[in-house]
Design brief:
Number of helices: 5
Distance between the termini: 61 Å
Largest sheet: 6 strands, mixed
Number of domains: 2
Number of strands: 6
Helix content: 25-40%
Structural class: alpha+beta
Low-confidence stretches: 1-9
Oligomer: single chain
Strand content: 15-25%
Protein backbone atom coordinates (compact mmCIF):
# COMPACT_ATOMS: atom_id res chain seq x y z
CA UNK A 1 0.00 0.00 0.00
CA UNK A 2 1.20 3.48 -0.85
CA UNK A 3 1.51 5.78 2.17
CA UNK A 4 0.44 9.20 0.93
CA UNK A 5 -0.40 12.18 3.11
CA UNK A 6 -4.17 12.57 3.08
CA UNK A 7 -5.62 16.00 2.43
CA UNK A 8 -9.40 15.67 1.90
CA UNK A 9 -9.49 18.84 -0.18
CA UNK A 10 -6.81 17.79 -2.66
CA UNK A 11 -7.67 14.12 -3.19
CA UNK A 12 -8.53 13.50 -6.80
CA UNK A 13 -10.79 10.62 -7.80
CA UNK A 14 -7.92 8.27 -8.68
CA UNK A 15 -6.26 8.78 -5.31
CA UNK A 16 -9.61 8.32 -3.54
CA UNK A 17 -10.07 5.02 -5.35
CA UNK A 18 -6.59 3.72 -4.54
CA UNK A 19 -6.35 4.81 -0.90
CA UNK A 20 -9.95 4.45 0.25
CA UNK A 21 -12.36 2.62 -2.03
CA UNK A 22 -9.98 -0.19 -3.02
CA UNK A 23 -9.09 -0.71 0.65
CA UNK A 24 -12.78 -0.87 1.63
CA UNK A 25 -13.52 -3.33 -1.19
CA UNK A 26 -10.64 -5.59 -0.10
CA UNK A 27 -11.93 -5.48 3.49
CA UNK A 28 -15.29 -6.79 2.24
CA UNK A 29 -13.59 -9.68 0.43
CA UNK A 30 -13.41 -8.22 -3.09
CA UNK A 31 -10.09 -8.86 -4.82
CA UNK A 32 -9.75 -5.58 -6.73
CA UNK A 33 -7.00 -6.85 -9.04
CA UNK A 34 -8.89 -10.06 -9.90
CA UNK A 35 -10.89 -9.64 -13.12
CA UNK A 36 -13.06 -12.53 -12.01
CA UNK A 37 -14.43 -10.32 -9.22
CA UNK A 38 -13.84 -6.65 -10.05
CA UNK A 39 -13.39 -4.80 -13.32
CA UNK A 40 -12.21 -1.20 -13.21
CA UNK A 41 -13.05 1.46 -15.80
CA UNK A 42 -15.58 -0.73 -17.62
CA UNK A 43 -17.14 0.65 -20.80
CA UNK A 44 -20.87 0.10 -20.37
CA UNK A 45 -21.63 1.03 -23.97
CA UNK A 46 -19.17 -1.25 -25.77
CA UNK A 47 -19.03 -4.24 -23.44
CA UNK A 48 -21.14 -7.27 -24.36
CA UNK A 49 -22.46 -8.25 -20.95
CA UNK A 50 -24.41 -11.33 -22.04
CA UNK A 51 -21.19 -12.86 -23.39
CA UNK A 52 -19.11 -11.55 -20.47
CA UNK A 53 -16.99 -9.66 -23.02
CA UNK A 54 -15.99 -6.77 -20.78
CA UNK A 55 -14.26 -3.83 -22.46
CA UNK A 56 -12.28 -1.40 -20.33
CA UNK A 57 -10.91 2.08 -20.97
CA UNK A 58 -7.70 0.81 -22.58
CA UNK A 59 -9.75 -1.24 -25.09
CA UNK A 60 -12.10 1.51 -26.25
CA UNK A 61 -10.77 5.01 -25.58
CA UNK A 62 -9.31 5.44 -29.09
CA UNK A 63 -12.25 4.19 -31.18
CA UNK A 64 -15.04 6.47 -32.37
CA UNK A 65 -17.93 4.55 -30.82
CA UNK A 66 -19.88 5.93 -27.88
CA UNK A 67 -18.36 5.07 -24.50
CA UNK A 68 -19.36 5.43 -20.87
CA UNK A 69 -16.96 4.28 -18.18
CA UNK A 70 -18.12 3.03 -14.80
CA UNK A 71 -15.39 3.17 -12.17
CA UNK A 72 -15.96 -0.42 -11.01
CA UNK A 73 -18.08 -3.39 -11.96
CA UNK A 74 -18.47 -6.07 -9.28
CA UNK A 75 -19.15 -9.56 -10.61
CA UNK A 76 -21.09 -12.46 -9.14
CA UNK A 77 -19.68 -15.97 -8.73
CA UNK A 78 -20.51 -16.73 -12.40
CA UNK A 79 -18.80 -13.60 -13.70
CA UNK A 80 -22.03 -11.73 -14.42
CA UNK A 81 -22.62 -8.07 -13.44
CA UNK A 82 -23.70 -7.63 -9.83
CA UNK A 83 -22.98 -3.99 -8.89
CA UNK A 84 -21.56 -0.75 -10.25
CA UNK A 85 -19.53 1.65 -8.13
CA UNK A 86 -19.39 5.33 -9.01
CA UNK A 87 -16.46 7.00 -7.27
CA UNK A 88 -16.02 10.71 -6.63
CA UNK A 89 -13.12 12.64 -5.15
CA UNK A 90 -13.28 13.04 -1.38
CA UNK A 91 -14.29 16.71 -1.61
CA UNK A 92 -17.45 15.87 -3.61
CA UNK A 93 -20.78 14.58 -2.39
CA UNK A 94 -21.05 11.01 -3.71
CA UNK A 95 -24.76 11.47 -4.44
CA UNK A 96 -23.86 13.71 -7.40
CA UNK A 97 -22.89 10.50 -9.21
CA UNK A 98 -26.35 8.96 -8.87
CA UNK A 99 -27.62 9.85 -12.37
CA UNK A 100 -24.32 8.80 -13.91
CA UNK A 101 -24.39 5.41 -12.15
CA UNK A 102 -28.02 4.96 -13.13
CA UNK A 103 -27.05 5.35 -16.80
CA UNK A 104 -24.41 2.65 -16.40
CA UNK A 105 -26.80 0.15 -14.84
CA UNK A 106 -29.43 0.94 -17.47
CA UNK A 107 -26.88 0.11 -20.19
CA UNK A 108 -26.20 -3.21 -18.45
CA UNK A 109 -29.89 -3.98 -17.85
CA UNK A 110 -30.69 -3.43 -21.54
CA UNK A 111 -28.36 -6.31 -22.34
CA UNK A 112 -28.92 -8.78 -19.52
CA UNK A 113 -32.47 -7.91 -18.46
CA UNK A 114 -31.57 -7.77 -14.75
CA UNK A 115 -31.11 -4.94 -12.29
CA UNK A 116 -27.63 -4.25 -10.99
CA UNK A 117 -26.87 -2.72 -7.59
CA UNK A 118 -25.33 0.76 -7.32
CA UNK A 119 -22.75 2.08 -4.88
CA UNK A 120 -21.86 5.76 -4.67
CA UNK A 121 -18.71 6.71 -2.75
CA UNK A 122 -16.23 9.50 -2.13
CA UNK A 123 -14.09 7.35 0.15
CA UNK A 124 -15.70 8.76 3.29
CA UNK A 125 -19.38 8.20 2.53
CA UNK A 126 -20.78 5.07 0.93
CA UNK A 127 -24.31 4.88 -0.43
CA UNK A 128 -26.02 1.67 -1.55
CA UNK A 129 -28.92 1.66 -3.98
CA UNK A 130 -30.95 -1.51 -4.44
CA UNK A 131 -32.66 -0.09 -7.50
CA UNK A 132 -35.66 -0.42 -8.14
CA UNK A 133 -36.54 -2.02 -4.79
CA UNK A 134 -35.25 0.64 -2.37
CA UNK A 135 -34.00 4.20 -2.29
CA UNK A 136 -30.28 4.95 -1.89
CA UNK A 137 -29.14 4.64 1.72
CA UNK A 138 -25.96 5.42 3.60
CA UNK A 139 -24.06 2.30 4.71
CA UNK A 140 -20.85 1.65 6.65
CA UNK A 141 -19.04 -0.68 4.22
CA UNK A 142 -19.33 -2.66 1.02
CA UNK A 143 -21.29 -5.91 0.99
CA UNK A 144 -19.40 -9.10 0.23
CA UNK A 145 -20.07 -10.94 -3.02
CA UNK A 146 -22.11 -13.53 -1.13
CA UNK A 147 -24.17 -10.82 0.60
CA UNK A 148 -25.01 -9.11 -2.70
CA UNK A 149 -26.02 -12.40 -4.28
CA UNK A 150 -28.30 -13.07 -1.29
CA UNK A 151 -29.91 -9.62 -1.57
CA UNK A 152 -30.45 -10.19 -5.30
CA UNK A 153 -32.09 -13.56 -4.58
CA UNK A 154 -34.34 -11.96 -1.95
CA UNK A 155 -35.37 -9.24 -4.39
CA UNK A 156 -36.66 -11.73 -6.92
CA UNK A 157 -37.88 -14.52 -4.64
CA UNK A 158 -40.04 -12.44 -2.34
CA UNK A 159 -43.79 -12.60 -2.70
CA UNK A 160 -46.27 -9.79 -2.60
CA UNK A 161 -48.23 -9.87 0.67
CA UNK A 162 -51.51 -10.03 -1.23
CA UNK A 163 -50.32 -13.25 -2.93
CA UNK A 164 -49.77 -15.08 0.37
CA UNK A 165 -52.89 -17.06 1.32
CA UNK A 166 -54.45 -16.49 4.71
CA UNK A 167 -54.11 -19.54 6.94
CA UNK A 168 -57.61 -20.25 8.13
CA UNK A 169 -56.32 -22.50 10.92
CA UNK A 170 -54.93 -19.28 12.46
CA UNK A 171 -57.56 -16.75 11.37
CA UNK A 172 -60.94 -18.41 10.85
CA UNK A 173 -63.59 -15.76 11.39
CA UNK A 174 -64.93 -13.77 8.45
CA UNK A 175 -64.41 -10.35 10.07
CA UNK A 176 -60.77 -11.22 10.88
CA UNK A 177 -60.14 -12.47 7.35
CA UNK A 178 -61.66 -9.27 5.96
CA UNK A 179 -59.44 -7.17 8.29
CA UNK A 180 -56.29 -8.95 7.13
CA UNK A 181 -57.28 -8.51 3.47
CA UNK A 182 -57.85 -4.77 3.96
CA UNK A 183 -54.53 -4.31 5.72
CA UNK A 184 -52.73 -6.15 2.90
CA UNK A 185 -54.50 -4.01 0.32
CA UNK A 186 -53.70 -0.85 2.28
CA UNK A 187 -57.41 0.00 2.68
CA UNK A 188 -57.77 0.39 6.40
CA UNK A 189 -60.84 2.46 7.30
Amino acid sequence: MVNLPIDPYSDNEFRTRITKINVALEAAGWKVKSRSMVIEEIDTKQSIFKKRDYKVYEDTFENKQESKYADYLLLDINGDPLAVIEAKRTSKDPIVGQKQAEQYVNDIKKQIGKDVFIYLSNGYELWFWNKPFDNPRLIMGFHSQEDLERIRFQNYAKKNFSDVPIKEEIINRPYKIESVKRVLEGKVY
